[in-house]
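Message: A physicist's question: would you kindly supply an amino acid chain plus fold tokens?
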Amino acid sequence: MAVIRVRTTKHTSFVNITSQVREVVKSSGVNSGICVIYVPHTTACVFINEGADPDVVKDIAYSVEKLIPWNDSYAHGEGNSAAHIRSAIIGNSRVIPIENGELLLGTWESIFLAEFDGPRERKVVVKVIKEE
């Protein structure tokens, strides 16, 4: 298991962590198995989407802001209910198959940490499990 630490710089930001996850897989020596990526935070999450065109994540951020506005009639007293809701909808973990020592991501796919209550330092737990 490895923990990747990611410093976010904005209230809402997406950080491409694909290279760090690939390094964990490479260091594990696992040829065939799965890679579990987990974010142990309630106002951040992890997702997979296109990483080649930065406008894709800009559009995702724009759409999330429209769907779940920061200021609304939320009951949670800390004032960050939107961050909790966004994280809950997107999800805090992903599983990616590993074959020939490589993540089986699609051609354009990247792994992103999504920050919704930053800036902060976040942990991303990466567990590589060998196929028996």
Notes: The chain has a mean pLDDT of 97. The radius of gyration is 15 Å.
